[in-house]
Amino acid sequence: MSNPEPPDEAARYANHFAIGYNLHEIVMDFGQSYAGDPTVRLHTRLVTAPAYARDFSEMLRGVLDDYERSFGPIGPGAANDSQ
After folding, report:
1. 50 in any annotated domain
2. Cα separations (Å) of 48 from 23, 35, 53, 80?
3. Total domain count for the chain?
4. How far is it, in rounded angstroms, from Cα 12 to Cα 44?
5. Cα 10 vs. chain centroid, distance in angstroms?
6. What radius of gyration, in Å, describes the C-alpha atoms of the chain?
């Protein structure tokens, strides 16, 4: 990562993701959920233009490709365990 974390923001873990859209925006919700607990604790909502969401998607794909080259394939996760 080339940009340092802003001093007033804490890092937050997310294992729950929801994405929606309308004509002008892409809305991404991030939170935490745990097996056996139906409660989802949302902590962050990002709202951005579709063009920036595409940029984000391409950046994420590149990071995941680099990760897999370094550490091997990413196996199936627990993404659907709590849903």
Report:
1. yes
2. 11, 30, 6, 26
3. 1
4. 9
5. 16
6. 15
Contact 14, 31 (CB under 8 A): yes
**Structure token digits, residue 51:** 């063009």
Q: Which two tokens stand for residue 68?
A: 């897999």
Residue 34, token pair as written in the block: 């745990």
Those residues with Cβ within 8 angstroms of residue 27's Cβ, 6 or more apart along the chain or in another chain: 19, 20, 21, 45, 46, 47
Per-residue pLDDT tens over the stretch 8-61: 678 899 999 999 999 999 999 999 999 999 999 999 999 999 999 999 999 999
Q: Is residue 8 part of a domain?
A: no
3-state secondary structure of 12: coil
Query: Between the CA atoms of 61, 63, 68 and 71, what dihedral angle is there, to the nearest 10 degrees?
Result: -160
